[in-house]
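User: I'm curious whether this sequence folds into something compact or stays loose and floppy. Could you predict its structure so I can see for myself?
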Amino acid sequence: MTKFNIKMQRELFDFLNTDLQFIKGVGPVLAARFDDVLGGRRVLDFLLHIPAYVRAREITENITTATKGDVITIPLLVKSHKKGGAFRGRRRPTQISCADKMGNAVIIQFFNVNFLDYWLKKLPIGEWRMVSGKLDHGTRYIINHPEFIEEMQNADKIPSAQAIYPSGEGLTQKTFAGVRDQIFAALSDKLLNAEPDMVEFFDALRHVHYPKSDDDLMSNSQYIVKLAYWELLAHQSAIVISRRNRTDVRNRRTVRPQKHELMSRFYNILPFSLTGAQTRTIDEIFSDMSHDVPMMRLVQGDVGSGKTIVALAAAIKMAEMGGQTALLAPTDTLAQQHYAKIKPMCDKIGIVCDILTGRDKGAVRREKLISVRSGRTKIVVGTHALFSEDVEYKDLGLVIIDEQHRFGVSQREALRAKGNNPDVLALSATPIPRTLSMTIYGDMDVSIINEKPAGRLPIKTTKLPITRVNELIARLKPQIDSGAKVFWVCPLVAESDISDMTAVQSRYDELKKVFPHAGLVHGQMDKKQRDNIMAQFADDTSNMRILVATTVIEVGIDVPRATIIVIENAERFGLAALHQLRGRVGRGNMQSFCILMYGQNISEIGLKRLDVLTKTDDGFQIAEQDLIMRGTGELLGTRQSGWINYHFVDYAHHRDLFRLAASAARDMDTPSQTICDLMFIFDRGVNICA
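Assistant: Here's the prediction. I'll summarize afterward.
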């Protein structure tokens, strides 16, 4: 690459890293809102957030040819203004009386008083305007808050096919379109002398952001297939390079000798016998730890299979060899639960175990940091705080990452960098289909815990139509009165005009009438408040017997006395997500139950998917069935819950691309500039090319 091209490439990637607040019309407030939706606030984060569907805006000149709910574009003559306001304690909307070219009356209504003067100026009496919005009519034709109002000579500014982005509070589709247009206008200049493959990549991205129909956004569209292949190539290349680097003779380490006798104490204090699968997995881990090549192992275990004890065995083994272990959890709640389980056992064995999270401040935090830095603390459990700048380890020998898909490449590498080629043990509670595990986690050796601890009873799973909800509540009452704890899961936080799914707040209000001590948690609550409510529900002495929640409880809450889980609109979840949610019960030795409630509009395919869960609790079998059945259009998104968060890859439709990308990556001698660029774009091992 010439110096000129290197300069152009640097300008391109500087632009991709630009904070969205510096895009015209955005600013810091909107940038923060974008951050909530995109999971980042760079130009690149916006580019990887593609539209969900296309809204067609058909032009009509006769309002009577349209039906209620249609999104229409129509020329209207403005006849009169009628300002709204307070009337007898109620607020009346502002109404603009109009007529179409056939003379039919159409009312435009505005309920938001803050911009009335603006809208009235946009719709002057006696003038024709091209108006586009959703038609709502009973006895009259009404358009509430039209999305576009243009002078007739500017009618072409209204798109005939509008890309609709997944959005959030305070972000309109106009805002998305405006930011998109500015970004792609700037990209045109940045790509003038870019590598041909990069030009092709961004051209495919442009087509996806400016779709002509829903077909352009389907998994099999030529542009989505291109982007999916490049994303997989970036991931597979990172896997190949990572494995080569790990096994390179220059990265070999000195094998640690045994310094203490701790494992025998560990086995002696276990209150139960390990399963055969746990024993086999521990043996595989110990074998890795005895080699001069750092361990990189993934432990896949179904919900309730006992991964924590396996992880603790690895940590005790590292302490036996004189090293330290950091156990990284994705949430404060999960870190606290791990600590509560591990700390008493460490005390009996005679090693120091501590917890470090963002909650630790001042003198308490300083004391913990000193203990970690001195090597006194052998096992430290925590969240992302474990790789903060001020955290220093004396001899970090093992990194355990729980729910590893929740952490990005840079976060995992930041923790590994705290030690000298430490072993890495990743835990996943979401079984990956065997047909995909080696291509998804090709840089790791995989152990599978496929047995449940003795005494665990299978969860009895049934499906029930939502019309029988009152009957279910009546049946739950004696169970709760006798001490049972119940999870009740809903898919939405608030009611929606475009969905028939029950909102968690609405269901909570209903259940509160029957169960006064019910609790409520969802993702929009303050994190500390949410953690407190979860802890209260988990407390056996608490009066809270029923917890109404969204999927925030999917992982990270362990309540052995919870024996019933109700999942509303179960047909809207992926099978893997339902299996994870079901795993919130059945964690003790009592019989547990899962009730899958489905809506009236469920399809035959939807019922078949729920039948899978009623027939088996084998997570790997469920994952295989989920892979086969995906693509029915019933899932809320294309991402598989608990799997790697790809932007363009659909596990069901792109299986051939996995193999192609894996083969291309294996045949690669050294990473090209394009490969390095792709790894940066998709956050797949960018440090390898640094």
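Summary: The longest helix spans residues 222-247. Residues 179 and 651 are 30 Å apart (CA to CA).
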